[in-house]
Structure formats: structure tokens, C-alpha cells
Write a structure and sequence with these properties.
alpha/beta; Udp-n-acetylmuramoylalanyl-d-glutamate--2,6- Diaminopimelate Ligase, Chain: A, domain 1; UDP N-Acetylglucosamine Acyltransferase, domain 1; 2 domains; twelve-stranded mixed sheet; ten-stranded parallel sheet; 29% strand
């Protein structure tokens, strides 16, 4: 597919500075640009690449002013990062989707498969399963009995949706993720631990993306919920009976213990740990490697937290500044103590 700078600008509401007929056939990072490539500049620490890139067209923010001559054609937009995301989505949507059921797939006779689906080799679909229209199930996907998968959902190889669980429309489940494994429920006894049956399910709402090897555990009773628009990175753990609010995003290795409720539009950095039975409000931002065991600000929402135990991010930053100077402060205290002792001796 070939597009001109003028056509690209038309798609995303941009303005062209340079050759409006410059042609693009691919995408490239600005530092790896080649002729015919489209790149973008959103972070100014990469600005120096703009003056040397071989990319034919570069998306930049509307208020950006080059400090040197630029060989590439610029397309100015309100937000370069959002604009390139839209173009990539459009590019992806133009790819021809595979359809058909591979002869090596197993589909129980009681399962219902929608129109225009692709079901790859060694996919296993259990009894009573419902798969919506336009779904793509890559090789070795397993869908347990009575589970439901909505329209236009894509599930990558070796992902598992356990029995009775529900996955919504327009979702993406990446390789190796597990939806509906048993929650970690055991009752201690004199002889060891008795397993508490996990008879609930997991409900994944629409437009959710779940990363590779991420696990969302089924509830003891009722459902674990991942609400619409949620994006979970690789290696995330959502425990039983949790609820993750709409449009919340979590980076890799986040772990949330059982029965915790997370609000809408939250952002958790990598390796954040959340204790169980907490209520976290909307728009809570928690920095990487923080541990939350309870915080009144987290419950109220609309705040930034950092550290372990997590506290107000600004206070944490001040505390870290002090910790970074502890050795010097210790030396000063020792010197002051010596000086004080000398003054006492003089009396």
C-alpha cells in the first residue's frame, strides 16, 4: 500500500510542511528511518534523529519548531503519538483476516461457532461453548466447556479460557494467558490445607487486552471482573473475586490479591503489589515497585502513590531525597556530637 503525505494528513487532520506528494509504504522508528517510511517524533529527547533520519515523512506535534533544517516532509498534528497509533490501527485493519476451520482443530458438536472465524490447528473447543462472529483462535488455544467468547476477539496460541468464563467483544488475549484458573483458596487444618472449591467464573468485558502469561483467577463464588477497556501487560496476576475498573492499565508483573476492587482509569507501574480486600478509587496512579496495603487517599481516588508501603508520590520523593543523603547526615551528626562533647569539657 502506498500513501502520500497529503493523504496521511487528511486521515489524521494534519498539515503538511514539505513535499505533499512524498510517498510512504511502511513505518519505522525515527532513528531507523528509510526512504518510503513514516516515523513520528513525540518525545523531544529523540529530536536529534529528526535531522538525520532517512524517513520520508515524520509526524510531529503542531507546536514543534525545528532548530535545524529537516530533509523529511513533516506532518503536523495535535498529538503525534495518538496520530501514529491511529495510523497503525488503520494499517492493521487493512490486513486480510484469515477465515476457516483447520482440519486438525477439535470442536465439540454442541459448540456454536460464529461467522467468518478462523480456528487454527490443535484448537480445542469444549461442549456448549459459544464463539462469536469474526473471532481468530490461533493454534493450541483451549476454550473450556460452556465458556463464551464475543465477536471479533483474537486469542493467541496456548491461551486458555476455562469452563464457564465469559470473554467479551473485540478483546485480545495473548499467548499463554489463563482466564479462569482456580483462585488461591485453602483452609488451614491440623493436617495441612483443604482446598476451597472455586465455583465462580471470570467475566472479561469488551475491548480488553490481556498480555502473555497473565492470569485472571476465577472467583470463589460469583465472578472476577475485568471491565471494559482494561489493558493488562504480560505477567500480571489478578486474584479471585477482584474487580478491575474500566480503562485501567497495568504494567508487567503487577499482582493484585483477592477481593480487591480497583476503580476506573487507574494506572499501575511494573511490579506494583496490591494487598487483598482493598477498595481503590478512580484515577489512582501507582509507581513501579510500590506496595499498597491500605491508604485512605487510594480509596478516595484521583491521586499518585509511590513506595512500599505506598504513600503520596510527592512525599515519597522528598523522603527518597533525604535517604539518598543519609550517609552525609550521619557524618554531620557525629561531627556535631564531637563538637558538643568538646564544648561540655570546656565548662
Amino acid at each position: 500500500m502506498v500513501f502520500t503525505a497529503e493523504q496521511i494528513a487528511g486521515f489524521i487532520g494534519g498539515t503538511v510542511e514539505g513535499d505533499k506528494n512524498a510517498q510512504i509504504t511502511t513505518f519505522a522508528k525515527i532513528e531507523e528511518g528509510t526512504k518510503g517510511a513514516l516515523s513520528f517524533l513525540a518525545n523531544l529527547k529523540y529530536e536529534h534523529y529528526l535531522y538525520t533520519t532517512e524517513s520520508s515523512v515524520v509526524l510531529v506535534n503542531r507546536d514543534f519548531v525545528p532548530s535545524q533544517p529537516v530533509k523529511a516532509t513533516l506532518v503536523k498534528v495535535d498529538n503525534a503519538y495518538e496520530a501514529v497509533a491511529r495510523l497503525l490501527q488503520m494499517y492493521e485493519s487493512m490486513k486480510q483476516k484469515r477465515v476457516g476451520i483447520d482440519s486438525l482443530a477439535f470442536i465439540d458438536p454442541t459448540a456454536k461457532i460464529g461467522k467468518d472465524c478462523y480456528i487454527g490447528p490443535f484448537v480445542a473447543i469444549g461442549e456448549g461453548v459459544e464463539v462469536g462472529d469474526g473471532c481468530v483462535l490461533h493454534p493450541h488455544v483451549t476454550i473450556g466447556r460452556n465458556a463464551k467468547v464475543g465477536n471479533n476477539t483474537e486469542i493467541y496460541s496456548n491461551a486458555v479460557v476455562y469452563h464457564d468464563c465469559v470473554v467479551g467483544n473485540n478483546c485480545i488475549l495473548h499467548a499463554g494467558c489463563v482466564i479462569g484458573a482456580d483462585g488461591f483458596g485453602f483452609a488451614p487444618t491440623a493436617e495441612g490445607y483443604d482446598k476451597i472449591p472455586q465455583i465462580g467464573i471470570v467475566t472479561i468485558e469488551d475491548n480488553v487486552e490481556i498480555g502473555a502469561n497473565t492470569c485472571v483467577d476465577r472467583s470463589t463464588m460469583g465472578s472476577t471482573y475485568v471491565r471494559k477497556g482494561v489493558k493488562l501487560d504480560n505477567l500480571v496476576q489478578i486474584a479471585h473475586n477482584c474487580e478491575v475498573g474500566e480503562n485501567t492499565v497495568m504494567s508487567a508483573q503487577v499482582g493484585i490479591a483477592g477481593s480487591t476492587k480497583v476503580g476506573k482509569w487507574c494506572m499501575f507501574g511494573g511490579q506494583v503489589g496490591i494487598a487483598g480486600h482493598l477498595n481503590i478509587g478512580d484515577k489512582v496512579m501507582i509507581g513501579a515497585q510500590s506496595g499498597l496495603s491500605g491508604d485512605k487517599n487510594a480509596k478516595k481516588g484521583n491521586c499518585g502513590l509511590m513506595g512500599s508501603p505506598a504513600i503520596d508520590a510527592r512525599k515519597w520523593s522528598r523522603n527518597v531525597a533525604v535517604v539518598n543523603n543519609l550517609a552525609e547526615l550521619r557524618d554531620e551528626v557525629i561531627a556535631l556530637k564531637k563538637e558538643l562533647e568538646e564544648l561540655k569539657k570546656q565548662k
